[in-house]
Design a protein that fits this description.
about 180 residues; mainly alpha; Rna Polymerase Sigma Factor, Chain: A; Arc Repressor Mutant, subunit A; 2 domains; 8 helices; globular
């Protein structure tokens, strides 16, 4: 499929993107502090860059890793243009994960906590945001997260440990948001 896309097959490229779009959107959403509009803009810009550059994809990494790096670089360029911090939004975001249907009250509480957590994560460095998003929010295995970031697993483990510590400090500093 990648070879067909590299050869200019638009349908093949779209199929590849559809296979990765949900995770890419979640990654963009978490790195943008929960701002859906910004996440969608970043994702669209990254996918456009991927489409323009697919012919140059050499296959030295997986296609998904290549897409993640394009999205990450798009975010870095955005931050450089707008200044280092991304403004956070308190807009409603969907909760991740429970298999049972929570009550309306539980849903509101979960949404609110996730929104606050995304906001606090967005205050951390991009490296911290990246590992927390991949491992804790998207629940990727360490091996896959390390591959996407492009570092060995043994370097990822201390990085996630430190990122969790910094996030815990922020949560404690702003614990009133989670009561």
């Amino acid at each position: 499929m990648v070879e067909r896309a590299r050869g200019g097959d638009i349908v093949a490229f779209e199929s590849l993107i559809r296979a990765h779009e949900t995770k890419l959107h979640a990654f963009a959403l978490n790195l943008s502090g929960g701002r859906r509009d910004l996440a969608q803009d970043l994702l669209q810009e990254a996918l456009l860059q991927a489409y323009r550059g697919i012919a140059s994809f050499r296959g030295e990494s997986s296609f998904s890793s290549w897409l993640w790096r394009i999205l990450r670089n798009t975010l870095l360029r955005y931050r450089e243009r707008k200044g280092m911090a991304i403004e956070t939004s308190w807009e409603k975001s969907s909760a991740v994960g429970d298999t049972r249907t929570p009550s309306a009250e539980e849903s509101l509480i979960l949404d609110d906590r996730l929104r606050h957590l995304r906001t606090l994560i967005s205050l951390l460095s991009l490296d911290d945001q990246e590992v927390l998003t991949l491992i804790d929010l998207q629940e990727l295995p360490f091996e896959e997260a390390a591959r996407l970031i492009g570092i060995p697993v043994d370097r990822l483990k201390p990085r996630i440990f430190r990122a969790r510590q910094r996030l815990a400090e922020l949560v404690m500093k702003h614990k009133d948001l989670f009561l």
